[in-house]
Amino acid sequence: YELTGPEHGPACVLVNGLTQYIKLWMPFRDGLVARGFQVASYDMLGQGQSDKPRLFIEQDDQVDVLRELIASLGPRPVFIGGISFGGVIALRYAIEHPDTIAGLVPMSSFAEIPPQLMRLGMAMRTALILGGTTYLQDLLFPMNFSNAWLEAKADIIGLATHRGWLINDVYALQNLMDSFLNFEPLTAKLSAIRAPTMIMTGEFDFLVPRPLQDSLRTHIPDSALVIVPRAYHAFTLERADLAAYIMARFAEDVMAGRFKGKKSIWIAPEEVGGELTPFPAGFD
Length: 284
Hints:
- The protein is an alpha/beta fold.
- It has helices at 26-33, 59-72, 85-96, 115-144, 147-152, 154-167, 170-181, 210-219, 235-238, 240-255; strands at residues 2-4, 11-15, 38-42, 78-83, 103-107, 197-202, 223-228, 264-267, 277-278.
- It has a nine-stranded mixed β-sheet with strand order 1-3-2-4-5-6-7-8-9, with helices on both faces.
- Helix 1 links the parallel strand 2 (11-15) and strand 3.
- Helix 2 packs across helix 3, helix 4 (115-144) crosses helix 6 and helix 4 crosses helix 7.
- The longest helix has 30 residues, at 115-144.
């Protein structure tokens, strides 16, 4: 894990997506640090520089690692932000340890695995087994990013794929994916989350589409949903500066007593410094 930013300020813990590692949070992390937060980013079991057991990586183990990391930060406001796979671990943590965090930000996340997502997960697992991490990443890039981002970053995608191949262990990654295919729905437990919660989703996220975000919003008591316009699944990478700004604003509102979730829906601004706007009534 890495700690960045002021030692005694409020803390944000960032939880990786499935094939991510610490360094991918750097632009997002820097946006939070600039607003006075200390940021803890870490590789979960099976990822990056952390231990990579080749068998039996359970979600319970990931929640325990997150619990120990949060406990090490001491008595101060702690906010958790998790993307996709990491968002599920963050949701589970908030359900099981509701009084240990000041706020929760699940991003591109879910509490159920409907048939479409299950079939996609099974296909990606097969791709990993038959084609390795490079083939899996070739599938994930167009699933996670916009055409504009892929075109602008075409010269570095090969390097990023190679780095992912070096960092990710194929067997550990397979077992991380297995822990999802044995997923137990969390929806009935979401009411146990007492922390203020801001759910973030990309407008064009087809991996984890809008109904799954609305399910989180309607079942988490003090929650709001923020839609990032024209963003895809991995908006924490494609729009890192904007996503960090929105998370920081949420944390500041919570600490100042201004956050009132009311299960509301908002549209994110186009740029850092803008304001959230209410989702217009009567529109999809």
